[in-house]
Design goal:
Distance between the termini: 32 Å
Number of helices: 8
Structural class: mainly alpha
């Protein structure tokens, strides 16, 4: 049974079902979209945050910044991020957890898709979690 059909299920029950699902990494974004449709954005995000590997997300986002900066530097350019985004990143990087993610998303909503994309892929079944598990 699809885990998001029953809207009356508690977050704990849905989160437990999510942890049991083993999907290819590219399916996590679709699963998140389905959860948003069935449960609403806030509740769906809460479910994914319960299973997110925040330390992995921090490392992956840090790698993104390094690659983006190196690419811009090679081209003789710079990259600009809004101060709210940067401040949210610093807070999350120092303390990777659901609370700092939520604060970051509130402070920099225009970056929501990027932030959520990394977090989703750092959940069990996500691309980054899968690749990380292969390194162990």
């Amino acid at each position: 049974m699809w885990p998001f059909k029953q809207k009356k299920s508690s977050l704990e029950n849905i989160a437990a079902k999510l942890k049991d699902i083993k999907l290819p990494g590219d399916e996590m974004a679709n699963l998140f979209k389905k959860a948003v449709r069935d449960l609403g954005e806030e509740e769906a995000l809460n479910i994914f945050l319960e299973s997110c590997n925040f330390e992995l997300a921090r490392d992956e986002i840090s790698d993104f910044f390094k690659l983006a900066n190196a690419s811009a530097e090679r081209e003789g350019k710079g990259i600009y991020y809004k101060p709210e985004y940067v401040n949210g990143w610093y807070a999350f990087s120092a303390n990777p957890c659901a609370d700092t993610v939520r604060a970051w998303l509130r402070a920099a909503p225009e970056y929501k898709d990027m932030i959520e994309g990394y977090l989703i892929e750092c959940c069990p079944g996500g691309k980054f979690e899968f690749y990380h598990s292969m390194k162990r």
